Amino acid sequence: MTTNFRMVAKTLYGLEELLAQELRQLGASAVELGNRSVTFEGDKGFMYKANLCCRTAIKILVPIASFNVFNEDDLYRKIYEMPWEKHMSVNGTLAVHATVFSEVFTHSQYIALKTKDAIVDRFRDREGKRPNVDVDHPSLRINVHIDRNICTVSLDSSGESLHKRGYKVENTLAPINEVLAAGIIMLSGWNGQCDFLDPMCGSGTFLTEAAMIACNIPPNINRDEFGFELWPDFDLDLYETIEAAALKRARDFPFKIYGYDKDLNAVRKAKENVKGANLQDFIEVHRKDFLESKKETERPMYLVFNPPYDERLSVRDITELYKNIGNTLKRNYPGTQAWMITSNLEALKFVGLRPSKRIKLFNGKLEARLVRYEMYEGSKKANKN
User: Fold this and answer.
1) How many CB atoms sit inside 10 A of residue 159's CB?
2) Domains and CATH numbers, the chain
3) Mean pLDDT of 123-148
4) What is the rounded CA–CA span in Å between residue 123 and residue 307?
5) I want to staple 368 with a disulfide (CB 3.0 to 4.6 A). Which of 293, 308, 326, 343 is the partner?
6) Which residues contact 384 (CB under 8 A, 6 or more apart)?
């Protein structure tokens, strides 16, 4: 029986509670919220499961050492003394990522370089040769975190960021991060209980994440590789058992997911990405201008979308666009719950609808708001009676 160990799941601002909930539902123990992170405990199999199944995790880190450091020589010596041959061979490759919050250590790239030097020097001194650095596809990714004088060294079990799901063939100019998209859909409360529309779908990220949530498909099932697959103790049989068990929990989805975009190129890219995720049976993408559209059924519907902010995508008159979004929702989309994320808080005022919820998030480095508008059938008062 394998023993449990501590892990850290990194996430985006505002998604910590969602991630903690995901980890608990998957079976993690000792779950604790942090700043853009959640710590938890599980065994090796659970580490595999967390990477495969967590929709709101960016990385799953495995801390292997924590110690006090007071200067660069101290850091070098303590990294050098760690048994790195347990984690990689001299013929392997490594990459080091560092984050620092300290008055003594102020340059993260230098800390990463110093860590790399200590590791390769240990191998050279013991075996007469050294492993190489490969920032793109290393056999071991190492994470160094210094908070004041406490240094934590972790192995990155994910490899590339978990937002890189593996289904995306094409990108539009301002795509939304897949982890943020999944988090927004989960924050909205949509879980496949009705139709879903992204009326400005771009490359189709919301559509694909929504379909995987509705069908309970593991979000990272399409990835080519996780970091842990290159570790010396990787257990292929265990991973395949966990993958098969996760796929068995997939469910049918009796409603429909729609995507609109007025740009033909975006529609083409969205269709390619949907195909890349093997979700064509659940998603329809159409060339259509949302501002000239209307709800096509009387069934309840969720709208989730990411309109232009006038940042990466330039808009001639952003306030006019947001005003027209509000008018379209009000006139043409009764019986819907509409969720919209934007960093343009000034333009948001021109939607002309009172949001029933506002959640602070970040889209990349842009501070944004996720807002909810309730589009009732008839008057709001009538619906309350």
Assistant:
1) 24
2) 5-156 (3.30.2130.30), 178-219+255-384 (3.40.50.150)
3) 95
4) 52
5) 343
6) none
